[in-house]
Each structure stands twice: as structure tokens, then as C-alpha cells.
Amino acid sequence: MRRFMSFREFDWALLGMVLILCTVSVLEIYSATLHTKYTGFHTKQLLWIAGGLVAMFLFSKIDYHRLLDWVPWAFGVSLVALVAVKLFGTKVLGARRWIKLGPMHFQPSEWVKLILILIVARYFANLGGRSLTWKEIFKAFLLVGLPMLLVLIQPDLGTALTYTPILIAGLFLGGINIRQALILIACATLFIAGAWTSGKVLKPYQKARLTSFINPDSDPKGTGYQLLQSKIAVGSGGVLGKGAEKGTQTQGDFLPIPHADFIFAAFSEEHGFVGAIFVLLLYFFILMRLIQNAQTAADLSGSLIIMGVVAVLTFQIAVNVGMVIGFMPVTGIPLPLMSYGGSSVLFTFLALGAAMNVRMRRFVN
Amino acid sequence: MYSTSDSRGEKLSTLKLTVVQYGILLMMLALAAGLWRLQVVGAENYRQLAEQNRIRKVPMMAGRGKLFDRENRLIVDNYPSVSCYLVREQSPNVDADLPLIARGLNLDLEQLRATLRHYRAAPGYQPIPIKADITADETAFIEAHRNELPELETIDEERRLYPRDGFAAHLIGYVGEVSEDDLNNSRFAYYEPGDVVGKAGVEETYDQLLRGQDGSRDVIVDSHGREVGYLGVQHAIPGQDLKLTIDNDLQRAAELALGSRSGAIVAMDPRNGEILAMVSRPSFDPNAFAVRINRADWNKLITDPDHPLMNKTIQAQLAPGSTFKILMSVAGLQEGIAQTMKINCSGGWGPYGFFHHCDEHHGAVDIHNAIPFSCDTFYYMLGDRLGIDKVAKYATEFGYGKKTGIDLPHEQPGLMPSAQWKLKNYHARWYPDETLDVAIGQGAVEATPLQLARIIGGIASGGHLVRPHVVFPGQLPEDFRRELQESFPGSGETNIPIDPENWVTITDGMYEVTQPAYFHTAGSAHLEGIDFGGKTGTAQLMSHEALGRTAKGRVTYPNVWFVGVTPRRNPELVVAVLWQNGEFSYYPARIGAKVVSAYVEKQRRLANNLQPIKAPPTAPVEVGAVWTLPGKASGSSGKSGQSARMQAGRLLVQNGEIVAGKTPDASAVPKKAVSKGRSVSLTQLGAIVPAGARKGQNP
């Protein structure tokens, strides 16, 4: 059966907001890399965005129901890829995260996010939104936990953590009841405490990263230093900011990687509280728009896909901005649509493409 | 197709989505609150932190003022140097880096740790000086380890370059890092740790002028401490150059004349108080202080019994011995007593039961020969007739027991005893017998070489006493000069008129001292053709307690003095010589004569008057050895190509030629050559013969 599908149904408002954010991102990358060896990264970012837009449109063309049919295969391939990365991947800074395919460096853990969103949506949609049994909950945990574990041992704590909101969103929207939720929270707390103290799950530097935000002075040259410099950057921006290309923290190389993980700090320094709130509002409206789309989706699986996207984006925004302003540890999680980076840009656009996909098919039936 | 009919009807509950929406809103509000806290509430605080982050003041050291002699010849210069500082707050773990730093900078690890411990209480941003004057290799090490050792900073400085061999070292002084104790002193309010400060001599007195004002460069740096930009500069104001009253030529002559003897020489123009030469021995190398002096060298300097760091010209307080007799003569003549005294010296005098010796049995002595004879008996009697009160009055008036007010630090006042002084310090009556010791400059009398130069120079100038100084006052800022002027109240220029007749008597007596005649104490220091007088002194008792203690276990000769003037009346130059443990007083007189002749020769050269001081002798001169050339002289036995050989023994040389000779080794010298009076040109051979014996040296 051929379904009616038109780009008229495409969420142009959402895309508009996304493109505004992308513009802000490119301009800030230009400013932040002006006097560094990364000069010119803004054009690369433009190319990634263009590529992301194309990928988004293409992705939205494929009916999400068909995607959900394929996703178990993709999931299997992902697991294999993650194992392959562990075995043959390129080692960068002590972690094997990248796999080289021809001229491209490929970071499977980034794409696994998308696949997880789909497979979790598929899993819970199959359960039909009724109350979950413990067996079903356990299966969901296994579904997300397996790739998470593989990413964790790369080691890539940040990306592994971004998988958890997918599971949580799935469980919450999929029909978990309050009693189960409380028990799970208790178990998770115990597990984290156990993992923390056992010393086998987390490497010492990961622990140090996670704790240094509480007292940045304890490690002034390591992540604590980065956090301190980030806070100085944001704080010294004041209400109106220092102006584009005038951020001393950004331009003076005090801020670590100001075009990637700490781009929000660079932006806040140069454009102040007003600019930062503007960006937060954009994110807020994007997320609200996505949730609205989830509400109007044709079926449960569509809603779950969009909510998975919302969960991942919300998590990344909270953790990244939280890190920049000193609320959260340094985890290496990029800010979606702002941070420089091909994988991140492509994932975000594909995730948005999945959401568009669902929206475009909302009047089917 | 994946979608099943039963799942198609399912929808997410609006309630849950609303919960999610509120959750996101809450998160956004939390983030906004965090931004508010940083950017609105904490903005000023973070702005300051950001400023500190990027702007660093790089100090620019002001070049210290140079020192020139009176003829604008450079004495003390500066040279560029790099110093290394450690800023603790720039590194997370300074202690762990120390071994690497110690290795790279060739420092002792323990000493480095001690340095850091020393600055424990200082704030973390304060640069701690860890090594001065680092080498190019060490600079390269610091540059190469910028990332590993961000706490190291280098600063370009200018360091002091002093003359070698301790030339005028005591006069110039030295500089060193300001000490922690000094920093707590209000005088050093403007100094910071690591600053260089004058610690002795001119460097100390004129530190305020010489040091200049450090500037700074505000640079933008990145988090690795690399300069990435430049904001502005506050130029350093270099210190003021100073022109000293020292005459390099005379200073050199005085240094050479004193040689390695322990003692001091000060030469002054008694007309205006300008110090022309100032030597103290043993000396030290001020360059060792220009960088930090090491502990071993420092201990050596301060434990040396000869006190190398002491400027003996102003700090050695010693019994003036017979030089005091000039003052006694003034007192005796002005009181009208000495003119009438005709005594018979029979080797001493002892009116109070204790016999006071004189060096010789001088026989008939009056005031005219009492000075050249230095007859103690005469002055015992004169002192006895004057009484201690009169002696003390004159002595104090002329400056004994008072500082001269020279512009050098830590001058000592010496000591002039009196009845009141004894009552006050010993709670005892003055015994007339004690006056006899004072009359010959012993007992409790103490004076510094500079005091003697000023007093005797003043007496020879008819009672015009000046305030000595080593820096021309004209070049000083007005307020600095006034402050210096007021720092020595009660000293400075004074006029104590001496009766012209008495003046002539005393100055003639001083002239006779250096005339070769029987009993004259410094006849061997006679300078032909120069109006040169003076007074010797031998202080047999070492009243200076410190020196008495340090003389333990060593053969101790008397301290000997000479104070000379040229010309004898209204002198242009007065020179005081002290030789500690020098035995005979005509030794320092000869040293003084060398300084005087160097001065007079220079003045004559400047006046284009090349009249020689000594006529070349025509009489044969005996020398120890000469070199002879092989050849005709030894041709009969020697092979061709034989090299020059030395003839040893007693040879008589006249006008550069050997006229007679004896040699212990007959075979070594061709007998014929000598016995026949064969001559070899000594000037050609470069023989070491007295200058006057050289051939063809006509004025």
C-alpha cells in the first residue's frame, strides 16, 4: 500500500529553529578557532551540516515502520562493530573508539544511539503500552545494557551514559509502574555504588573526571582546571558578553576545545547571559516541538521513536551545559547541533530525520 | 510490515508527555539559574579571574646606575643576565617537579627545597627567585620544558659587573638580593623579594638613586604561559649614573702600593674632602655578590680574622700612635707651652712611678725636632703639662672620636678619652699618668684612617677641616642631597684657626719627617723634588679588642701608620696609610710616598711639566742576573744556534752594560766576556734591571 507522503508535512518550524542553532554554531566555531590550529573548522562544520540535512531528508523518506523492521539486523551489526572496534579500532588517547573504513574514521558508538532509539521504540511498541512484567523490564535492560557495556570498555563513559536516557524514556513511556520504578532506582543506586567502589568498572581517570567538578581546585591542571576555566569563561561573559571574537578565555586558549565540548562556554563568554538564554530557549522550543510531534504521531512506535530522540537530546543538553557551568562532571558529551564534530552532527540530523519521518506519516490511516 | 493492528491504536498518554515537558522545563530553568549565578551574580568576580588569566605583568628590570671615576672612566658596569623564578600557582605539583628542575638548572635539590620552604608563607602567585644568572643551556632547558614545568619563568635582568681583583671594592660596595629581614624594615618598603639592593659602600648609600624604577610589560598569555599578545608597557627608568671623586690612576697606585698587606689607604683632597683613593686589605670580589654568593664563600669572608668585608678606612678603630702627636703639637703650640719646651730625652720619662719609654735617647729635643724624631719623652712632658682636659678639648674639636660624615655606610667614630668619659664608663678618676699614654696616641685613643687623614690634612691646611665624600654632590637630586647633608649633624666643614706661626712650625716638622737625617722616622720615604711631609705612627698596644682576640696564635707586630701631605702647607693631597702588623713605621711611610709620588707625577703630567722626579743614576747598579746572547761573547766554545743564557751572581751594570761580574758557576759564563768587560746590550736582551740603569733613557 502506498502511503501519502509529502514534504509539506515536514516540520519546517522545527527545521527553522534547528538551522538557527546551526548558524549560531558555525559562527561560534569560526570565532573560537580563529587564532588556533583549528582555523577553518567552521567550513567543515558547514559541510557536515549540509550532509546532515541531506541525510535527514533521505532518512525521513524511508517509512519508519520499515526502519523498525530492519532495526534488529542493524542492532546485530552494531554489536559486531563495537566488538570490532574493541579489537581492531584505532587507538586515540588511550581509547579505541574509532574504526577506519577507507578514508573515513567511523565511531560506531555514535550510531548505536540511533539504533538503540529505534530498537527500544520497537520493543516497547510491541508490548503495546500495557503494564510491564519484570521479565520484560529485564529484557529491555539487556537490550540497552549490552551495547552500553561494549562502549564502556572502549572506554567511552560519556557515550555509554547517553544510552541510559533511551532506556529510561522507554521504560517510563512504555508502561512501567511506580513500584517497579522505585525498585529499579534502588537497584541502580546499589549497582552504581558497587561499581564505584569495586574499582573494576570505572578507570581511575573516569572517577577523577566524575568527581573533580565538585571541587575543581583539587585537580587544577586536569578536568578540574577545564571546569574552572569554563566557569571563568561563562562568568566573565556577564550579561551581554564580550563580543564575537573577543572572548579572552576562548581566544587565549584557556578554554579547552572551545569549538567542541566547550562551545557553549565560548558562546556564553562572547555573547553573555542574553545569548546563552537565547540558545537555551531554542533548545527548549525544539524539544517542545518534538514532544508535540510525539503526541500527534500515528502510533505508539512513532511516539516512542520521537521520545527516544527527545530523551537523548535532553540528556546531552543537560549534561553538556551542566558541565560548562560547573554542575556536572566533564564527560566528553557534545552539545547537539552546537559542538563541532561530524558524527555528532550526523547523528543529530538523523535523529531529527527519524522524528520528521514520524511526523510526516502522522495522518496515515 | 512491522506495525501490527493492535499496536496501531495505542497512543502515549498525554499525562506522561506533560510530565516529560515539565521535566524539561525544570531542567532548562536549572541551567538558566546556573547561568544567572555565573554571568549576572558572579560576573565581576569571574571577570577578574579572567583578567588574571590572560594578562601577566612581565617585570622589566631597571638597569642600575653605572659608576664612573672623576675623569668619567667607567668603574662599575652592568651586563645582561637571565634569572629563573618559580611561580608555585602555575603548577599542580611543584614538589614532584623539583628533581627535574634541580637537574635542569644544576641546582642542589636540598638547597632548592630549602629555598621554597623559605617562601612557604608567601602567596602562590609570588615568583620565587631560584637561580640567578642562568646559562644559555639552562635557558634552553626552561624553554624546552614549558609544558611540563609551567611554573618556571625567566626574567632578563642587568647584573653588576665590578672591577676584578677587588679594585676599590670597599668603596664601591656590592649588591645582593634584599633579605627577608630587610623586607620587614620600612626602609625597604618599595622592595620585593628577589630585588637587588646595595649592601655596602656607594651601592648602599646611593641605592635609592642607582636602582632606578622597574617597569613592566603587560602581555596576554595562554594557559601554557606562552605570550600570545601584548597590551602595553611601562618602561623601566634606569638608575642614575654617578660620578665618583675617585681617581682611577691614584686608586690603582694605592692598590699596588699596599699590595697584599693587611691594612688600608685613604687619599683625600683636604681642600674639598673629595676622596681620591680608598683601599682596604684584604679585599673581596664584589662580583661574587652580584649573583647570590654561596654559603661557603660567605662563611670564609666573615670568619677571616683580617675582616675582608670591613672597610678599614672608615671602620678600623685603632690607636693612632704617634700620628696623634700632630694634634698634640697643635694643642701645645696653641696653648703656648710647646714653644718654650727644651727637654733632654734620655730614653723615657716616668714622673708617676711608672717609667714610660721612648724609642731612642734623642738628647736635646724641642718642638722643631720633636715631630721628625717622634720623641715620646717630649710629648709625655707636653701631655703632662697640658692635662687630659686640654688634650681632649683639642682632639674632639679636630674630630677625634667623631664620625667624619663621609657618604659611606657604617662609619665608626673612633674614641677620644677624657676625664668625663672615664668617669662615665669606668666610674673612676682620671690618673695623670694615663695622659702620658694618650699623648703618644695610645691608651684608649682610637681613630680610623679617614679620621686621621681629615684631621692631619685639616691641620696642614691651617685648621680648615672638610667633610669627606666619594660622590660629587652636584649631580644629586636636591632633596637627596639635603637628606644626606642632614644625616650627620655636627660634622662637616669646620674652621679652627691655627696661629700661622704654629702652623708653619708643625708643617715644617712634618716635612722634616721625610727628610733623610738621623732620628728622622721616615727618612727612607723621602721623595726628591716633592714637597712632601707626614707623620708616622706605631701603635704597640692593640687596644682594639677584636683585633687583640683575633691575633691569638699569630706573631703580632705593631700596627703602623703614616699620614702624609703634599705640599706640606695647604696640601692638595693627604694620604693615610695603615698597615696592620707592619712592624716598622717607615714601611707605611714608603707606601704613602708611592701614593704621593703617583699623585704628583700625574699632576705634573697633566700640567705638561715633564720634569723627572729622579735623575737617572750614573753610578753602576748591582743586579742579580742578566741574560746574555751567545755569539761573539761565547763564540770560542759555544756552538752556533745556542740560545740566550742567564748569568747569575753579582753583576755590576752601568748604562745597560755589564762592567763587572761574579758568578757562582764559572763554566756557565764565558769568563772572557766578563773579565774583559765585554758588553751585551741589556735593553736588547730584555734584562731585568732597575729602570734607571737602562741605557739611553734620557728625559
Short description:
Chain A is mainly alpha-helical and 365 residues long. In chain A, 68% of the residues lie in helices and 4% in strands. Chain A has a three-stranded antiparallel beta sheet, covered by helices on one side.
Description:
The complex is a heterodimer of chains A (365) and B (699). With 365 residues, chain A is mainly α. Chain A has helices spanning 12-32, 41-61, 64-88, 108-127, 134-152, 157-174, 178-198, 204-212, 223-237, 248-251, 263-295, 300-324, 342-360, and strands at residues 90-92, 95-101, 104-106. Chain A has a three-stranded antiparallel beta sheet, with helices on one face. In chain A, helix 12 packs antiparallel against helix 13. Chain A starts with 11 loop residues before the first helix and ends in a 5-residue tail after the last helix. Chain B is built from 27 helices and 24 strands. In chain B, the strands form eight sheets. In chain B, strands 2, 3, 4, 5 and 10 form a five-stranded mixed beta sheet that branches. Chain B is elongated and about 145 Å long. The model of chain B is unreliable at 1-8, 542-547, 631-642 and 663-699 (pLDDT under 50). At the A-B interface, helix 3, helix 4, helix 6, helix 9 and helix 11 of A face helix 1, helix 2 and helix 3 of B.
State the major sheet of chain A. Answer: 3 strands, antiparallel
Q: Over the alpha carbons, how many angstroms does the gyration radius of chain A reach?
A: 20 Å
Indicate the percent of residues in helices of chain B: 25-40%
- Total helices of chain B: the number is 27
Uncertain stretches of 5 or more adjacent residues of chain B = 1-8, 542-547, 631-642, 663-699
Oligomer: heterodimer
Low-confidence stretches of chain A: none
The overall average pLDDT of chain B, rounded, is 79
The H-and-E topology of chain A, N to C, reads as HHHEEEHHHHHHHHHH
Shape of chain B: elongated
Strand percentage of chain B: 15-25%
Counting DSSP E segments of at least 2 residues, the number of strands of chain A comes to 3
Which structural class best describes the helix and strand composition of chain B?
alpha+beta
The chain pair forming the largest interface, with residue counts per chain, is:
A-B, 63 and 48 residues
The value of Rg of chain B in angstroms is 37 Å
Going across the major beta sheet of chain A, what is the strand order?
1-2-3
Strand content of chain A: under 5%
Q: How large is the count of helical segments of chain A?
A: 13
